[in-house]
C-alpha cells in the first residue's frame, strides 16, 4: 500500500530544507527527496574531488592534487552578511543547529592555471595588482566624494 503525504518537497537546497522543516513542524506529513546522490542542491559541497569531476563529466583530477577525500568544493560561494535578513531567518527557524559559521579567511579564483586571492579590503584592492579592481576602488572613492559634497 502506498503511503500518503501532505507535502512532497523536491530538492535539498536550503530553501527546500527550511520549507520541509516548517511544514513538518506544523504537523504535515512530508516526503523530502532529491535526484542527486548528495544533499544541498545548488549550494552543495562536493567531496571527494572525484565526485566533482564525475558531476561535470570531466576526466579525473591529476595526481598532483593529492587525495580526493581531502577536498570539499562548494558549487557556489556561501557568504552571508552577519546581520543580514537571511541570518535572522536561519536563527528563527533554528536551521543554525545544523550549520557552522566562520569568518572567511580568504576567497580565491582559479584563472590561467593559478590561484589568485580575491581582494576583500580597501587595502587589498589598492595593492592587488589587478587594474580592474584598483580602478573600481578609485571609482568608488570618487563617487563617494561626489555624493558627499553634492
From TrEMBL:
| Gene3D superfamilies named in the record | FAD/NAD(P)-binding domain, Guanine Nucleotide Dissociation Inhibitor, domain 1, Guanine Nucleotide Dissociation Inhibitor, domain 2
Localization terms from the record: Cytoplasm; Golgi apparatus, trans-Golgi network
In the UniProt record, does the keyword Cytoplasm occur? yes
Single annotated GO MF: Rab GDP-dissociation inhibitor activity
For this UniProt entry, which segments traverse the membrane? 129-149
Q: What is its main location?
A: cytoplasm
Q: Show the Pfam families listed in the entry.
A: GDI
Q: Which keywords does this Swiss-Prot/TrEMBL entry list?
A: Cytoplasm, GTPase activation, Membrane, Transmembrane, Transmembrane helix
UniProt GO BP = protein transport; small GTPase-mediated signal transduction; vesicle-mediated transport
Q: Does the keyword Cytoplasm apply?
A: yes
An annotated GO cellular component of this protein is:
Golgi apparatus
Q: What family does the entry list? A: Belongs to the Rab GDI family.
Function, as annotated: Regulates the GDP/GTP exchange reaction of most RAB proteins by inhibiting the dissociation of GDP from them, and the subsequent binding of GTP.
UniProt-listed PANTHER family: RAB GDP DISSOCIATION INHIBITOR, RAB GDP-DISSOCIATION INHIBITOR
- Name used for this protein in its record: Rab GDP dissociation inhibitor
Amino acid at each position: 500500500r502506498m503511503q500518503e503525504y501532505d507535502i512532497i518537497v523536491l530538492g535539498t537546497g536550503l530553501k527546500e530544507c527550511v520549507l520541509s522543516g516548517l511544514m513538518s513542524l506544523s504537523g504535515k506529513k512530508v516526503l523530502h527527496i532529491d535526484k542527486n546522490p548528495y544533499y544541498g542542491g545548488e549550494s552543495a559541497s562536493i567531496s571527494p574531488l572525484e565526485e566533482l569531476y564525475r558531476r561535470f563529466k570531466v576526466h579525473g583530477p591529476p595526481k598532483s592534487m593529492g587525495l580526493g577525500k581531502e577536498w570539499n568544493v562548494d558549487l557556489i560561494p556561501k557568504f552571508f552578511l552577519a546581520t543580514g535578513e537571511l541570518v535572522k531567518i536561519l536563527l528563527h527557524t533554528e536551521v543554525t543547529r545544523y550549520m557552522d559559521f566562520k569568518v572567511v579567511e580568504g576567497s580565491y579564483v582559479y584563472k590561467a592555471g593559478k590561484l589568485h586571492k580575491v581582494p576583500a579590503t580597501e587595502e587589498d584592492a589598492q595593492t592587488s595588482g589587478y587594474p580592474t579592481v584598483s580602478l573600481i576602488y578609485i571609482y568608488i572613492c570618487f563617487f563617494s566624494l561626489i555624493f558627499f559634497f553634492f
